[in-house]
Amino acid sequence: MKLGMRSAIVVGATGLTGSSLIEQLCENDEYVSVIVIARRKLHYEHPKLEVKIRNFDTLEEKDIEFAHELYCCLGTTIKKAGSREEFEKVDFEYPLAIASLAKKQGIPHLLVITAMGANERSKIYYNRVKGKLEQALIELGMQRLSIIRPSLLVGHRDEFRFGEKAGEKVLKLAKPLLVGPLKRMRSINASQVAKAMIVIALHGKKQPVTIYPSQQLATMNFPKVAHEEFTREELFNWQKRKGADVTEADKVNREVIINRDKFKVEESVVDKEVTFHRENEK
């Protein structure tokens, strides 16, 4: 399989979604380089992976190299952060600062995880901060911004979060009732969100701002590659190799001339005489 030439930067790689994302990026043939900017070392290693240990309070332009995509999976809880001020630093200030540096470095696409209920006018503080981040990123004017709005994330965590575990059990019991408009409230596996982000990066809408709700993320998958089927006769046309039934069309060689001065591809068709020798001829 032919390898791609894409590069990606990931921040928030130690979290539930971020850790799954870097593994999937490293295993994806489209990517040759995955750079993680983190505050501590990762347990995961891969030949494509480079980890830069940085203090997010002192990030500079040189810390953000050019890449095709920047995936932002930063996020915490007020309890873990210790205060609303520290929570906003992780969930609002850091993502916005990193996005600003990414824009200066010419990174064309930012994918950021917010929340299902993100709304800067929400009565819920958490959703209000996420909504404020979305609005600030839209105003920043990235070339392409993909906003990822998952519902409750599920998956294996190294830390125990009582609130999320309780919510996960409630939503699991209520899943049969969550149909129609309520389907968006179903919990979603973090690995599926990570996969959906890569699908969006490679095959998503090429427009300035796109918001992806949880129910859409849950169904995203890589498009199937169509493989042409050839018969054995088509693959091994020995008669043609011996020079039998050679048509004028077979004598046309197509040449592609690259005009590097004009930076465009020009195609010309050149007719050339092709001499075919039979096996008994010398």
Question: Secondary structure elements and their pairing?
Answer:
Layout lengths: L5 E6 L4 H12 L3 E8 L10 E5 L15 E4 L5 H4 L2 H21 L4 E5 L11 H16 L3 E6 L3 E2 L7 H13 L13 E2 H14 L5 E5 H4 L14 H4 L2 H4 L10 E8 L4 E8 L11
Parallel strand pairs: 1-2, 1-4, 2-3, 4-5, 5-6, 6-9, 7-8
Antiparallel strand pairs: 10-11
Helix pairs in contact: 1-6, 3-4
Supply database-style keywords:
about 280 residues, alpha/beta, 9 helices
Quick structural summary:
With 282 residues, this protein is an alpha/beta fold.
Describe it.
The protein has nine helices and eleven strands. It has 282 residues and is of the alpha/beta class. Strands 3-2-1-4-5-6-9 form a seven-stranded parallel sheet, with helices on both faces. It has a two-stranded parallel sheet with strand order 7-8. The protein starts with 5 loop residues before the first strand and ends in an 11-residue tail after the last strand.
